[in-house]
Design goal:
InterPro entries: DUF8042. It comes from Clostridium gasigenes. This is DUF8042 domain-containing protein. The protein is mainly alpha-helical. It contains four helices and no strands. It has a single domain, classed as Up-down Bundle (Four Helix Bundle (Hemerythrin (Met), subunit A)), CATH 1.20.120. The protein is elongated, with a radius of gyration of 14 Å.
Length: about 110
C-alpha cells in the first residue's frame, strides 16, 4: 500500500470501531423506547457502512468472497423494510445480531492486515 492507501486504511480501521459503538447506541435507543433518536442515527450508520464497503473495494481487501458485502446489503434492505413497516424491534435485532457481528469480523480482518 502506498502512503495515501495506508492513511485511508487506518482511518477506516478506526472508523469501524466508532461505527460499532454507534450501532450499539442505536440499538439501545430503540430497545429503551427512544425510537425517534435511534431512527435518526440510521442514515449515519448507512453512510458509515457504505464508507467501509468503499474502502474494502478501493484497497482490494480480501474477504470471504463477496459473501460479507452481499450479507451487509441484504441486512440493510431488511432494515429499510423495517423502517417502512415501523418495525423498530426488527431493526434493532438486525443491527445487534447481524450487522454488529459483520462489523466485528471486518475489524478483525483490518487488525490482521495492519
Amino acid at each position: 500500500m502506498n502512503k495515501q492507501e495506508i492513511e485511508v486504511f487506518n482511518t477506516a480501521k478506526e472508523y469501524i470501531e466508532r461505527l460499532i459503538v454507534g450501532i450499539n447506541e442505536t440499538v439501545e435507543f430503540i430497545q429503551s423506547g427512544n425510537d425517534k433518536k435511534g431512527i435518526e442515527m440510521i442514515p449515519l450508520i448507512g453512510e458509515g457502512i457504505e464508507y467501509i464497503i468503499n474502502v474494502i473495494s478501493l484497497l482490494k481487501i480480501e474477504l470471504n468472497g463477496e459473501e460479507t458485502i452481499e450479507n451487509l446489503n441484504t441486512q440493510l434492505e431488511e432494515i429499510i423494510d423495517g423502517i417502512e413497516n415501523g418495525d423498530y424491534v426488527l431493526i434493532a435485532d438486525i443491527f445487534k445480531y447481524e450487522i454488529v457481528p459483520i462489523m466485528e469480523q471486518l475489524k478483525i480482518i483490518f487488525e490482521q492486515i495492519s
